[in-house]
Amino acid sequence: MIRIVLPAHLRLLAKVSGEVLLEVEGAATQRSVLDALEARYPMLSGTTRDHVTKVRRPFIRFFVCGEDWSNEAADRALPEAVANGSEPFLLVGAISGG
After folding, report:
1. What is each CA distance from 82 to 18, 27, 51, 65, 66, in whole angstroms?
2. 98 lies in some domain
3. What is the mean pLDDT, run by run of 10 residues, along the chain of 98 residues?
4. CATH code, 82
5. DSSP, res 44
6. Coil, strand or helix: which one is 32?
7. What span, in angstroms and rounded, lies between the C-alpha atoms of 54 and 45?
8. Which of 24, 45, 51, 79 is most buried, judging by how many CB atoms fall within 10 Å of its CB?
């Protein structure tokens, strides 16, 4: 079971509170986790990744075990701690400006 923490605006859109729990078939990767998330919550499709290319949106970041995985390969296996649910997969809304 994969634990996913969504930013407040995506929780509101998906009508969920707290963490989202998902079963992912096959290897746990960014791609498989986001595919499962969008399949279960179709209203989130296109919010974290482009509809066509599936490339991460510029103001969404992915964190795994305290590390920024935003620029990691989408098919790289996630750490076992995330795959077994002891650590969450975090989606964080980034802010720019200065």
Report:
1. 17, 11, 25, 7, 11
2. no
3. 95 96 95 96 94 91 96 96 97 82
4. 3.10.20.30
5. G
6. helix
7. 10
8. 24
Q: How far is CA 1 from CA 8, 18, 47, 56, 98, in A?
A: 22, 15, 22, 23, 39
| Total count of domains within the chain | 1
Whether 39 maps to a domain, the answer reads yes
Residue type, 25: E
CA–CA separation, 44 and 6 (whole Å): 11
Rounded Cα–Cα distance for residues 76 and 36 (Å): 16
What is the domain range of residue 60? 2-93
pTM of the model: 0.91
